[in-house]
Design goal:
The chain is an alpha+beta fold and 324 residues long. The protein has helices at 2-37, 76-84, 112-116, 178-181, 285-289; strands at residues 40-52, 59-60, 67-75, 87-92, 98-100, 103-107, 124-128, 132-135, 137-138, 140-148, 151-155, 159-161, 166-168, 171-177, 187-188, 192-197, 201-206, 217-218, 222-227, 229-240, 243-244, 250-255, 258-266, 278-283, 295-296, 298-303, 307-313, 317-323. Helices cover 18% and strands 48% of the residues. The strands form nine sheets. The protein has a four-stranded mixed beta sheet with strand order 4-1-3-7. It has a four-stranded mixed beta sheet with strand order 15-10-14-18. A four-stranded antiparallel beta sheet has the order 12-20-23-27, with no helix packed on it. A hairpin with a 2-residue loop joins β5 (98-100) and β6. The longest helix is centred in the N-terminal third of the chain and has 36 residues, at 2-37. The chain is elongated, with a radius of gyration of 42 Å. 14% of the residues are buried. Mean pLDDT is 85; it is low at 2-6.
Amino acid sequence: MKKKVASSLAFLKNDRSVRVFSIFLVLTTIIWFLIELSKTYSSTAYIKIDYKNLSNTQILQEAPLDRIEVALRSSGFNLMSYQLFSKKVTLDLTDAIYSRGDRHFVLLNNHQLEIGSQLSSGTELLRFNRDTIFFELGATVSKKVPVLLALDISYKPGYNLMSDIEMQPDSVLITGPEKYIDTIQLLRTKSIQLTDVYENVNQAISIQTNQEVTAISYGALGVNVTAVVEKITEGKLTIPVHIINVPSEISVTTFPKNIDIVFQVGLSNFKEINEKSFEIVFDYNTYLKDPSLVYLLPIVRSKSSLVRSVEVKPGKVEFLIQKK
């Protein structure tokens, strides 16, 4: 029993010595690390650049370089901070941009003191790993471009549009760098599909924009689409054949003498449609242009805006020419 107690006391004593040694080793390592970080070193790091006073007359056509590599001399603490967190500095470009032809650039070495003064205390900016930053400058332009509606619509059986689909706005003013604006000829809406439609349409649709070019501004980011949808019915009217441009010295007899007008119209407007709702003619001049013709084709000169579709039956009439 005494031997077991003595063995346990020896183990505890050895374990305490190990823990003391471990704590001493950790503290020694930390102190050594802090001493080393307090020393001065030279190293490279990346810093972010924010530009101001770029140009009073022109704008950037593309985003310029926003991060540059530099050589620094500073304490280990500062250098470690630059490695972990990118420092941001401001570069004032007032009267600083040089031009050579259509190329614009800034010589970084001319701004070493300006940039170095914005670094942490005790940090020396030794050099830039590149000496030039290029800019693509151009004019700001505006133009109005049409909007193309990407709408796929189908209707419930017995229903249809009673008028053309309307979109507001149908064109949008865009403003931005000339380089990009010149390439835009139209804008498209996002694709949308409507099925089994039987009621009036009133739909907001977004316009597709170029998410990669943030310098472009849009006068509108969406359009509103409206359409009148109604239950349709079919009607038929019979009217005499009317031939135009007949010379006064001849007469023309047609076979048949009457034609049928088959039309589709909204149920609510059916009673509004009569013979005066249409102007359908046959042109004698088509025969003069081609005397081999033995029939004339109908021409729908006008129809009521209430009528959705119209069909003339028969689709052609034969004729006989007689001199008076």
